[in-house]
């Protein structure tokens, strides 16, 4: 079984007027093929219940399903992979549990973070935050487009070719400048989750991302 590719638009669930499952259904029907279930305050049994339903929907619709943290649940239900924050399980430990075909992403704020994660065998990097966001507590220093440019240049010089996904308070107007830095893609949460029509918002973002040249996509990979 071949490992799935890393999407250029990744949706991360966020508390909103829609349930987590409704959010996932909306964005997948809107065209994205990558969702990450992020439930930080709920009980484990509630997270597992939503995860099972979301995974089933994603499998039926050809979307990649990623768990935020909760390696145990990901292993139990057969999720496509996990995204691990700085205070979550170490990526190499998660790999030992999930196996070689699982996708493992890691959160980074600096080049040193990326280097450490690369050494631990992650498949992609979630680099941020781009700007202040209320989605995350204990936010790391914001990077802005210049921060992304500097870090991605360091990655190139070091021969680190992992896909880098920008995250943190992103808006559509940020995309032109952001993709010039060489990021592989973007992860968006609140902007989609809290919109009146998450599916339509997703479609608009996909069309916007599609306007950027392949030269920008492939600058570092």
TrEMBL record:
Keywords: Magnesium, Metal-binding, Thiamine biosynthesis, Transferase. One of its GO terms (biological process) is thiamine diphosphate biosynthetic process. Pfam families: TMP-TENI (PF02581). The keyword Iron does not apply. Binds 1 Mg(2+) ion per subunit. 4-amino-2-methyl-5-(diphosphooxymethyl)pyrimidine binds at residues 36-40, 68, 107, 136. It catalyses: 2-(2-carboxy-4-methylthiazol-5-yl)ethyl phosphate + 4-amino-2-methyl-5-(diphosphooxymethyl)pyrimidine + 2 H(+) = thiamine phosphate + CO2 + diphosphate; 2-[(2R,5Z)-2-carboxy-4-methylthiazol-5(2H)-ylidene]ethyl phosphate + 4-amino-2-methyl-5-(diphosphooxymethyl)pyrimidine + 2 H(+) = thiamine phosphate + CO2 + diphosphate; 4-methyl-5-(2-phosphooxyethyl)-thiazole + 4-amino-2-methyl-5-(diphosphooxymethyl)pyrimidine + H(+) = thiamine phosphate + diphosphate. Mg(2+) binds at residues 69, 88. Belongs to the thiamine-phosphate synthase family. This is Thiamine-phosphate synthase. It comes from Carboxylicivirga sediminis. The lineage of its organism: Bacteria, Pseudomonadati, Bacteroidota, Bacteroidia, Marinilabiliales.
């Amino acid at each position: 079984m071949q490992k799935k590719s890393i999407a250029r638009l990744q949706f991360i669930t966020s508390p909103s007027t829609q349930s987590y499952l409704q959010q996932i259904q909306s964005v997948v029907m809107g065209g994205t093929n990558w969702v990450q279930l992020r439930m930080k305050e709920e009980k484990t049994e509630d997270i597992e219940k939503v995860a099972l339903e979301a995974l089933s929907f994603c499998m039926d619709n050809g979307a990649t399903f990623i768990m935020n943290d909760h390696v145990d649940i990901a292993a139990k239900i057969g999720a496509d992979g996990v995204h691990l924050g700085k205070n979550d399980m170490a990526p190499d430990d998660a790999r030992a549990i999930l196996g070689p075909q699982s996708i493992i992403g890691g959160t980074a704020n600096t080049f040193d973070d990326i280097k450490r994660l690369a050494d631990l065998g992650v498949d992609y990097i979630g680099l941020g935050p781009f700007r202040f966001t209320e989605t995350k507590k204990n936010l790391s220093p914001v990077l802005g487009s210049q921060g992304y440019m500097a870090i991605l240049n360091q990655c190139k010089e070091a021969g680190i070719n992992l896909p880098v996904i920008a995250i943190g308070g992103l808006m559509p107007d940020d995309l032109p400048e952001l993709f010039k830095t060489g990021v592989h893609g973007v992860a968006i949460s609140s902007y989609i989750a809290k919109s009146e029509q998450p599916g339509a918002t997703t479609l608009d973002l996909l069309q916007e991302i599609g306007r950027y040249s392949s030269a920008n996509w492939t600058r570092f990979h």
